[in-house]
Amino acid sequence: MTTIDVDPATLLSIAEAAARLGLSTSALRYYETEGLMLEAVARTTAGRRRYAPDDLRWIETVQRLRATGMPVREVRAYAQLCRDGTGNEARRLEVLREHRTRVLAQLAEVTGHLEAITAKIDGYEETRGLWGASA
User: Which domain holds residue 36?
Assistant: First the structure.
């Protein structure tokens, strides 16, 4: 069990944390069992999870990494680097820079697709009058 120095009033149950983060309780349990959490989640004497504000901030980071396509294995490795503490900041920076490069490439690809869709819409809107369509 983890001991934490925070105001107990700021701790959230798993259901409250899930609701605040827009996740399911299963997802929060998955993050924990897969080693994606920065620290072990605190527990009550009855063994119920209690999430601190720092836990929520970390989970938001994990959500952003996952939402931008970082594989679970890489999130796990990044979390481990963070857990290892000082001395590996250069490696953490490298991981994030590599991920940003992939995200930027994906963004450029999607932007190209969006431009093609917009051009198609523009073409239809220009010829709309020919079909007798109303605005």
Answer: 8-85
Q: Does residue 123 fall inside a structural domain?
A: no
DSSP H/E element including 115: helix 89-131
In a domain, 124, yes or no: no
pTM of the predicted structure, to 2 decimals: 0.83
96-104: average pLDDT: 98
- Per residue in 7-37, pLDDT tens? 778 899 999 999 999 999 999 999 999 999 9
Q: What are phi and psi of 13, to 5 degrees?
A: -70, 170
Chain centroid, CA 2 distance in Å = 24
Per the DSSP assignment, residues forming a β-bridge with 43 are 49
Q: Is residue 91, in this structure, part of any structural domain at all?
A: no
CA distance 116 to 101: 23
Q: Domain total for the chain?
A: 1
Distance, CA of 106 to CA of 102 (rounded, Å): 6
**6: nearest Cα among 48, 47, 56:** 56
Q: Which two tokens stand for residue 81?
A: 């680097």
**Pick from 117, 108, 2, 122: which is nearest to 52 by CA?**
2
